[in-house]
Every structure is written in C-alpha cells, then in structure tokens.
Amino acid sequence: MAEGDQLQEVQTISVLHEMLQQSFNLFHTECSFAALDTTLLEQLRTGLHEQMEDFHACLGQVMGEEASALGRMGPTLALNRYFHGIHVYLKEEEYSDCAWDIIRVEIIRALSSSSSLYKRLKKMDGDLNSP
C-alpha cells in the first residue's frame, strides 16, 4: 500500500475511533441517564465500547503507535468541535428529553455513515492486497 493511502486509512480509522469514543463519552454522562431508557443506554454503551476496542486494535495493525498519532491530528480536531457543539446544544436546551432524542438520532445517523465508510475502507484494503 502506498504511503499516502496508508495515511488516509490511518486517518479514517482514527476518525471513526474518535467518533465512537466521543459518542461513548456523551452517553456516559449523568444527564443521559435521566433522559434515556437505561437498558437501551447500557446496550448502546456496550456496543460503542466493543467497537472502540476493535478500531483501536485495527489502528495498531495498520501503523505503529507513533505514526497513528500523526494520522489522528487533523481530522479529529473537526470531530472534537462537532461533539463540543453537541454538548453546547444539550446545555442550551437544558438536557431536555427532546434535545436528547435529537442527539440520539444524529449520533445513530453518524454511526451508520461511519459503518458504511469502514466497510468501504475494508473493501478497498482487500482490493489493494489482492493479487
């Protein structure tokens, strides 16, 4: 795999991992307990945690720890701003049930897009490694 392709793959996996981490953190607050069904919340957090572990392992396989830090720098800054905006929105809406519903739908949409991106990435990686 070319160096540029490898960096792009590292950045993609890093962004997906960061999205999972930020989502996990968001749904691990006291305010989320009050607004969301606890059984569904626990299932969501367990699933997010398992996926984060998978992405972390995948990132380590693609590149070493030093190189993976380089791949995470730029793209995750935008993602951090995105999640900061979510926290600001929830605070402005006083963590209302309606605000949490909107955020829940937004996160599910984002995670669905992430899943599709990851599947395409794995397919491309398979195509690149085929004889």
UniProtKB/TrEMBL annotation:
This is Antiluteolysin. The lineage of its organism: Eukaryota, Metazoa, Chordata, Craniata, Vertebrata. InterPro entries: 4_helix_cytokine-like_core (IPR009079), Interferon_alpha/beta/delta (IPR000471). GO terms for molecular function: cytokine activity; cytokine receptor binding; hormone activity. PANTHER family: INTERFERON OMEGA-1, TYPE I INTERFERON. Its main location: secreted. One of its GO terms (cellular component) is extracellular space. It comes from the Eukaryota. Belongs to the alpha/beta interferon family. IFN-alphaII subfamily. It is found in: Secreted. Keywords: Antiviral defense, Cytokine, Disulfide bond, Hormone, Pregnancy, Secreted. It comes from Ovis aries (Sheep). SUPFAM superfamilies: 4-helical cytokines. Gene3D superfamilies: 1.20.1250.10.
